[in-house]
Structure formats: C-alpha cells, structure tokens
C-alpha cells in the first residue's frame, strides 16, 4: 500500500512530567493515505475472519466512520516499562510456553516480575512519593542481540528498562535490590551491572498465546513480516486481545523516548502505519494510546 501525500492532520500533544511543550505529534486518518479505505477495511476484516479463530478478532469498524479523531487511550498509566528478557529457548519459542499469568509465577526466570510488582505495592502503601507506576512484561527478543554472557552462570536475570534503554544483569543475590531499584526514579546509583541496549527503536508485539490465542496467531503473522526491517520482540499480555494484533513502538528521537500503542495490526496495514509513526504521524484508526519521556 503506497502512502500518498498527507492531507488532513489533527494536532495532538503528548504530555509527561518531563516532556517539553513544543513536542507535538499529529494524527492522520487512513482515509488520507489510502483512497480505497473502504476496500482496505473489508480486506482487513476478511483477513481476521479467515484466521478461523474460535474467539474471533473484533472487526475494524471505524475506518468508514465520519469521525477520524482517535478514540480515548486504552493503555495503562506507567512511567517505566520493565521487560524481563526471556532467553530460555534458543529456537525463539519461549513465548509459546508462557503461562497465562506469566508475571505472577515463582518459576525462574519469571518470578522476578512478581517480586517487582510486590515491591511496587509495598512502596505505594507506605506512601513513598517517588514510587513509579511500573509496567512489567516478559519479552522474547527475536532479532536483537543482547550483550552479557549467561552460560554456566547459574540463574541470571536480564531486565530491559524503558525509557532508559538499559539492561540490568544480575543474579539471585541482587533480586531484592533490583526489585526496589526499578520502582524508583533513578537507576544509576546501584552496584548492579548495567548494559547498554544499542537500539533506537523497538517493536513489541503481544505474543502471549496461552493468555489468548488471537495474539498468539497474530504475533506470528506480524513477526514474519516485520522482523526483516525492524528490531522486534514478542511480549506478554498488554491488553486488548480482541483488537489483536497489538503492537507497541518505542523509539528514541534526540533526548526523547516515545511509545506508540497500536491495535488491529495485520500484514495489510502494518508497514504503512509504522512508516507514518516514524515520521510523527499516528494513524488514528489503529491507535490505542501513547506515552513520552524527555
């Protein structure tokens, strides 16, 4: 699908406690990109229907609506995304084995996320004002190399922190320290090994098959198409299964980090939607929400 000259644009401002007011992004409608948008909607819905899922993906209904202003945000409020890097399967199939409640298990390596969530609740109950709202997930990176050898080192954990674009690498002796560290605003004052994450962009696709087969199916379809041109990871539950495929784009622009959340991603639209996002235009019909830091 060719992206034509953009026409109508709706300004939208993203705020955070550190975001500069001048940082403005714009919404556009798929109608301004593809003149055959009615045919596109039909093709997308046929694509979802032909997957023959027992619990079908909700059809796209807003492409042909009169209003192209994006719906309200459907993403959680968070200040840091903590992602446990899952390296338990060299064949990159660990995501297919994630339990439905992967973040609530005590099993290695997933138990660290449970510890982080428990520490977050503890700090909030104590009234610690600097405790951050933290989003936790498991991620299996498909085509992104990660430094830090872990063979023959026992139980080693790696946490990718966004918007810091850093990886914490540690063993069981540091679990308590790390659980508190990632819930606080600053992560620099620590003895825990910190590795760089040498990417300026990362796409996260919900691939939590045992939580919902819709995301399991769509993640495979999307990953096959996207990993040629994008650094990509399959991530545990990020909500909105009925709107699968769900994709989060993280990208760095100078001193800013942006996260854009999309729904109804499929091979027919994903390239164009992501291309526009890189240029600062969010296609409203596929938008779920956003967050920015700077």
UniProtKB/TrEMBL annotation:
Protein name: Altered inheritance of mitochondria protein 32
CDD domains found in the cross-reference section: TRX_Fd_Sucrase (cd03062)
InterPro entries: Aim32/Apd1-like (IPR009737)
Signal peptide bounds: none
The organism of origin for this protein: Hanseniaspora guilliermondii
Family, as annotated: Belongs to the AIM32 family.
Pfam families recorded: Suc_Fer-like
Tree of life domain: Eukaryota
């Amino acid at each position: 699908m060719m992206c034509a000259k953009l026409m109508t644009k709706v300004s939208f401002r993203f705020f955070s406690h550190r975001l500069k007011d001048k940082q403005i992004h714009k919404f556009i409608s798929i109608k301004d990109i593809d003149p055959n948008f009615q045919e596109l909607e039909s093709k997308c819905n046929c694509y979802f229907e032909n997957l023959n899922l027992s619990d079908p993906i909700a059809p796209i209904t807003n492409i042909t609506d009169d209003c192209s202003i994006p719906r309200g945000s459907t993403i959680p409020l968070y200040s840091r995304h903590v992602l446990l890097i899952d390296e338990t399967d060299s064949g990159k199939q660990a995501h297919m084995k994630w339990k439905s409640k992967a973040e609530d298990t005590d099993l290695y390596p997933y138990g660290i996320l449970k510890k982080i969530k428990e520490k977050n609740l503890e700090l909030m109950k104590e009234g610690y004002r600097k405790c951050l709202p933290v989003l936790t997930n498991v991620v299996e990176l498909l085509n992104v190399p990660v430094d830090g050898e872990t063979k023959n080192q026992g139980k080693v954990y790696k946490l990718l922190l966004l918007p810091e674009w850093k990886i914490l690498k540690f063993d069981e002796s540091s679990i308590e320290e790390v659980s508190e560290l990632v819930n606080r605003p600053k992560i620099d004052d620590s003895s825990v090994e910190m590795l760089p994450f040498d990417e300026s962009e990362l796409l996260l696709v919900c691939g939590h098959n045992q939580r919902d087969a819709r995301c399991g199916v769509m993640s495979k379809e999307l990953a096959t198409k996207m990993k040629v041109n994008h650094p990509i990871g399959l991530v545990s539950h990020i909500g909105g299964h009925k709107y699968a495929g769900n994709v989060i784009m993280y990208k760095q622009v100078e001193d800013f980090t942006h996260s854009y959340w999309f729904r109804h991603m499929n091979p027919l639209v994903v390239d164009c939607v992501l291309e526009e996002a890189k240029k600062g235009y969010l296609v409203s019909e596929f938008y779920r929400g956003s967050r920015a830091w700077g």
